[in-house]
Every structure is written in C-alpha cells, then in structure tokens.
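#lab-general

N.A. 3:47 PM
ok so I finally got the sequence cleaned up, no stray characters, all 196 residues accounted for. can someone with queue access submit it? mine expired

B.Y. 3:52 PM
send it over

N.A. 3:53 PM
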Amino acid sequence: MNLPNKLTIGRIFLVPVFVASMLIEFPLHNAAALILFIIASLTDMMDGKIARKRNLVTDFGKFADPLADKILVLAAFLCFVQNGLCDCIAVIIVLFREFSVTSIRLIAASKGKVVAANMWGKVKTVTQMVAIIAILVMQTFFDVNALSGILSADTASLLYRIFILIGGALIWISTIFTIISGVIYIKQNYRFISDM
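B.Y. 4:20 PM
back already:
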C-alpha cells in the first residue's frame, strides 16, 4: 500500500478517536477534537498531492479518499446534532447526497469504471471542513472560558448565542454546496443510472 492510501486509511482510523473527544466530556475535549479534525483534514490535503506528484494515483485511492472524507464529515455533523450544534435536516440532506453519489460510484464500479471526485465535490468538502473547524474553534473558546472565567456569565451567554447562529449559517452554506455538487455529480454521471 502506497503512502497516500496509508494516509487515507489513517484518516478513517482517526474518526472514532475524534468522535470520542467530541462526545466524552473532559477538560478541553473540544480542543482535542479540533486538533484531531485538523490533522485528519491535513491528511486529506496531503494524500491527493502526494499521489499526483509521485504518480501514485490508484483506483483504491480514487474511491477511498472521498469515502474517508464523507466518514469524517458525517461523524462531525452527527456529533454536532448530538450536542445541539447542528440542524438534523442539514445532516439528512448531506446523507442523502452522499448515499446518492456513492450509489452511482458503486454502479460505475460494477461496470469497470472509476468515477473520481469533481471540483464541486472538493468545494463541498472544503466548505464542510471550514464549517466544522469554525464550530470547534468556537466550542474550544467556551471550554477555555469555562476553565478561566474570563467572561462574565451574561457576556458568555450572548457570545454563545451569536456563535450558534454563525455555526448554523456555516453549516447551511456547506449544505447548499452539498446540494449543488450532488446535482452536478448526478447530472454528469447519469449515464450509469440510465443504462440500468
């Protein structure tokens, strides 16, 4: 197994640790989740660059890299729903898009074709990762404040409501890109469905 594929597999193995840090409350658990998510996101950037630069692009990598992204992002969104930080409707839309795209990929694979991610899929992934990182930064801020007590309770409460609105807006912006990328992906690869 080449280095890019090892990075992709490593990203998948980071997901349970990330989820545990999101859901198990301990001092600065959101900071731990933030660090883990950033590390996982960096492996996403690195595996593709290394694969293209060293001519190590494989069919496994074309399939597993976007799958690892989906697992990581959906794990974060589901943890956000559990913690009251994300609207479940946004997650349902994301899940619907991901299942649709993965189904097309599987149909294509059964016909000997590998369908790689397109530019819109990459934009979708970046906006999702930015939203997740921003929410984790905000949550880390409140973890630090809880330990240090820098802000008064009223100020912290007001900021928390503002941050929830910002986080929600970022999730919905990424969801809009999820819809756009899904529609484009289905349109570009409709031949795999129509040939059934």
